[in-house]
Amino acid sequence: MHKDFLYSEIANKIAFQIRNGVLKAGDRLPSVRILCQEHGISMNTAKRVFLELEAQSLINSKPQSGYFVNHLSSPKLPLPETSRPLSMANDHEPDELISKVYGNMGKDDLTLFSIGIPSGDLLPLAKLKKEIVQSTRRLREGGTEYESLQGNLRLRRMVAARSLAWGGNLSEDDLITTSGGMNALSFSLMAIGKPGDTIAIESPCYPGILQLAINLGFKVLELPTHPTTGIEIDALKQAIPKINLCLLVPNFNTPLGSCMPDQHKQAVVTLLAKHGIPLIEDDVYGDLYFGSQRPKCCKSFDKEGNVLWCSSISKTLAPGYRVGWIAPGKYKDQLLKLKLVHSISSTSIVQEAVANFLNTGRYENHLRHLRGTLRDNYQHYIQAITEYFPAGTKMSRPQGGLALWVEFNKRINTTALYDLAMKQRISIAPGRMFTLQNQFENCMRLCIGLPWSQELNFKLKQLGNLAKMM
Amino acid sequence: MHKDFLYSEIANKIAFQIRNGVLKAGDRLPSVRILCQEHGISMNTAKRVFLELEAQSLINSKPQSGYFVNHLSSPKLPLPETSRPLSMANDHEPDELISKVYGNMGKDDLTLFSIGIPSGDLLPLAKLKKEIVQSTRRLREGGTEYESLQGNLRLRRMVAARSLAWGGNLSEDDLITTSGGMNALSFSLMAIGKPGDTIAIESPCYPGILQLAINLGFKVLELPTHPTTGIEIDALKQAIPKINLCLLVPNFNTPLGSCMPDQHKQAVVTLLAKHGIPLIEDDVYGDLYFGSQRPKCCKSFDKEGNVLWCSSISKTLAPGYRVGWIAPGKYKDQLLKLKLVHSISSTSIVQEAVANFLNTGRYENHLRHLRGTLRDNYQHYIQAITEYFPAGTKMSRPQGGLALWVEFNKRINTTALYDLAMKQRISIAPGRMFTLQNQFENCMRLCIGLPWSQELNFKLKQLGNLAKMM
């Protein structure tokens, strides 16, 4: 393995142990010398491991003493258990609850812990406006022309170029643009599934995916999912005879923030390919890693074109632009046909604007900044939750993304907590939104994509107090 | 009836007789005095009738003699017969041909008689660019925020206000925005139909509708359609027991350019409502009338919310913006749900830009100009086709819209003509594209949305010569 990756591989392993409580707050880490011996690496590589863990705020160094696990990074709050949804597919869609919570979007007088996108304060709005203006100048006929069916060529080139960072090795011709990430998932599901099919997903799962699957007439099989490593491979294996397709969010999914280890990704891809079951991979959060390196995707291990890799800029740059894409593997013809008959093409101007934003390197700068902010926010949230939330609270350890998953003790019903919190102008996303079954009623998702402030800290305290009173 | 409408009602009747050859080129029209007596109208109203017919270039006045049917407006070429598709639904989709012809889009070195949108030369590009820039300034967070689910409020208000002109009387709350007209049709079909359903449509029909219906698993029933009055009511009546839904383009549909008389619209709405069969009405060409007045829609006669009225700005203003809308009647909840789960929302910036363009009155100005150009183009095409095309050629009498339908004698295969014409850098839309059956093989559609020029005249001559040689 190339040494550039070696240090981060080792750092990731240690980070994993810290996040999962194998290494606890205050624990001393092995010395640089020991680390060299254990892993057969150079002093320099070992030092980079520690620098990386420090950068992630997971450890701190004490002069003359060595490195210690940070108190914040290894929260005292335990991790939620692996989810145990029922093995049968069912469909008690939490539609009303979802509508109620989504209905709060855009309300300025609310603290929106419930949203799943970064706040506008974290986005490069002025630069984006300039890109829009430039696009109307650069595009033939000011962007009034139909975009080509496959989508903006420069955008596809940039997405392909960026795929090298996660082992995608895509070419521009492998990609089709869409009107946002949900549109990519919708076309993918319509291309490979039909009403009555059974689809395997993570549990808890993004409500939009649940609703889309139900709307298309699929039976939904929610599978046990670990809060840090994602879907349980054994559970997926056992489900194989029952399922026709699979949709996963392997990197920093919402609400758990889990990230499937590479071995898991590879195992899932191999398993599904062997049984001819297509895999739709939603990678909208993949660029929002807290560590040093962009995680790989299932698509990185896809040799047979069996993975439909979907992503967008909605969670990182501009939700309202509706710019997304798919690398549909061997399903490209079906995808192009679907895009044609359902939409003709995507909006020209916004695709061109995003293409240019990526092309000038502004996107990488922005992402670096955004990741730093989210990582800091995460630490602030940990501190506040540890301090203010009731005894028995458990909490996820997101390794990236925009979401924190909080599990209260069984007595606290978060759908009721939602109503209480709204009276104090606080909106949360109750756990029941993330499943079609009767589970997660004592859980909630908190968005960490809001700019941190004393006000936010106070709102978390209020929320904690409400929970304590229940 | 209000006298403002009376004159246009009478003018429309006379126009209809001229276009259908009841009144022939050179025929003298009744005098103003006779017209007053016949219809019980005032002199002023009668004069307005003749002014209106003159404005449409259908008649001309000769001093001291009266009014005569214009030679151009009543072309010598006969009208094609009412189409007679087979009564059974079938699905020989002309996919390859459609891909081939659509693949020519955007190629600068071709004369694109094959496209179905107005040329960029006919669009207000500079003004639209300004609207885009203004939108990024006016929208919260520069348009990076998700648009509300139902869509831009100002846009919906403007579309609702404009609906008064055709008797729609819609309110902003009746409307949902979409990403273009095809997206409106797609959501409508998905909301009310399911795989295996049979859908009744006009024949010939826009290829996008054929492909969409097949893609959604519908059986397609093509119904006999008259080139000026649209779908045959009796044929629809007989089909009722077989069909689950109906999709019509009542105003200036492509390729025929027919416009259903109000009585037909009303009859269809009543018939379908009686049998609980929903009607999707595609009205994307409705604003492109050659006469004095915006035609009504089926939606104008919809008392039960059974009509899903779909339209867009793609045929009039900016195809690449992807801005459309639906008034879904009683199917509003299903439509909102579909829009949410398949797309979350539409692109914010382009909706705001179009809303403002409509709001400032620029749209009405632009439409007035565009309609005049299309009407003039139509006259030029008539002249060229009459002069250059082989004996036995028949031609539609569009009363608006962007398309001319040409029927050659049976020996001339337009799919073969397409290949010949392409060698001379001319692209046409062969008739076989507009049906799932083996019909219209001696027909073609010509777009009249190109700026008229001697070059275009020459290309029509070349095309005529090629046809003569076959």
TrEMBL record, chains A, B:
Show the GO MF annotations: DNA binding; DNA-binding transcription factor activity; pyridoxal phosphate binding; transaminase activity
Q: Name one Pfam family in it.
A: GntR
**Record InterPro entries:** Aminotransferase_I/II_large, HTH_trans_reg/aminotransferase, PyrdxlP-dep_Trfase, PyrdxlP-dep_Trfase_major, PyrdxlP-dep_Trfase_small, Tscrpt_reg_HTH_GntR, WH-like_DNA-bd_sf, WH_DNA-bd_sf
Question: Ranges for the HTH gntR-type domain?
Answer: 4-72
Q: Which UniProt keywords apply?
A: Aminotransferase, DNA-binding, Pyridoxal phosphate, Transcription, Transcription regulation, Transferase
The similarity annotation says: In the C-terminal section; belongs to the class-I pyridoxal-phosphate-dependent aminotransferase family.
PANTHER family recorded = HTH-TYPE TRANSCRIPTIONAL REGULATORY PROTEIN GABR (PTHR46577), TRANSCRIPTIONAL REGULATORY PROTEIN (PTHR46577:SF2)
User: What is the protein name stated in its UniProt record?
Assistant: DNA-binding transcriptional regulator, MocR family, contains an aminotransferase domain
Print the organism lineage: Bacteria, Pseudomonadati, Bacteroidota, Sphingobacteriia, Sphingobacteriales
